[in-house]
């Protein structure tokens, strides 16, 4: 093998690595939304929610493109249900803007964080104890809902 053969092999290896990198970038492009939900929170200095138990949810766009949060709700699945089985679930709409946070619709750019607050009542706590509660979110970039499991405070 002479120098031109080595150069050809080197160029082929570099081109292959660039192709693999482009595939990885393409698969990870777009909005990437991650969520966390917490129960048993109380407000401080907010007359609208004073003395009420609250659930708090936080969404973060870890992707490289913006999206718009278009809807916010909640699903309850009876104990033993699979989250993929939509037949037995019960759906709820959640008031946006409670306590001055959680406006819907809302644009989430790369790195942006959205927070929302939902009031907990006896029915909420019963459903949390007897099944699985998830917050559900709709976005402009996808037909799929994002489900964020609500874990009881321990």
Describe the structure.
The chain is an alpha+beta fold. 23% of the residues lie in helices and 39% in strands. The protein has two helices and eight strands; from the N terminus they run αββββββαββ. Strands 3, 4, 5, 7 and 8 form a five-stranded antiparallel β-sheet that branches. A three-stranded antiparallel β-sheet has the order 1-2-6, with no helix packed on it. The longest helix is centred in the first third of the chain and has 26 residues. The chain is elongated. The termini are far apart.
Pick out its properties:
3-stranded antiparallel beta sheet; 39% strand; 5-stranded antiparallel beta sheet; 2 helices; alpha+beta; 23% helix; 154 residues
Provide a concise account of the structure shown.
The protein has helices at about 5-30, 120-130; strands spanning about 35-40, 55-60, 65-80, 90-95, 105-110, 115-120, 130-140, 140-150.
Strand content: 35-45%
Instruction: Outline the biggest β-sheet.
Output: 5 strands, antiparallel
Series of H and E elements: HEEEEEEHEE
* Unreliable segments of 5+ consecutive residues: none
**Whole-number average pLDDT?**
90
Radius of gyration: 22 Å
Helix content: 10-25%
Shape: elongated
Topology diagram in text:
Layout: H1 3-28, E1 33-41, E2 54-61, E3 67-78, E4 90-93, E5 106-108, E6 113-119, H2 122-130, E7 131-139, E8 142-149
Antiparallel strand pairs: 1-2, 2-6, 3-4, 3-5, 3-7, 7-8
């Amino acid at each position: 093998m002479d120098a031109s053969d080595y150069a050809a092999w080197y160029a082929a290896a570099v081109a292959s690595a660039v192709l693999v990198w482009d595939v990885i970038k393409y698969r990870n492009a777009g909005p990437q939304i991650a969520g966390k939900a917490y129960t048993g929170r109380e407000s401080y200095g907010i007359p609208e929610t004073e003395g009420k138990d609250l659930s708090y949810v936080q969404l973060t766009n870890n992707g490289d493109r913006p999206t718009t949060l278009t809807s916010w709700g909640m699903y309850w699945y009876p104990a033993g249900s699979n989250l993929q089985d939509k037949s037995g679930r019960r759906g709820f709409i959640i008031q946006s803007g409670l306590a001055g946070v959680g406006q819907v619709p809302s644009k989430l750019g790369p790195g942006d964080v959205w927070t929302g607050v939902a009031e907990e009542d006896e029915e909420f706590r019963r459903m949390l104890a007897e099944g699985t509660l998830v917050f559900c979110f709709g976005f402009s970039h996808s037909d799929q809902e994002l489900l964020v499991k609500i874990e009881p405070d321990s």
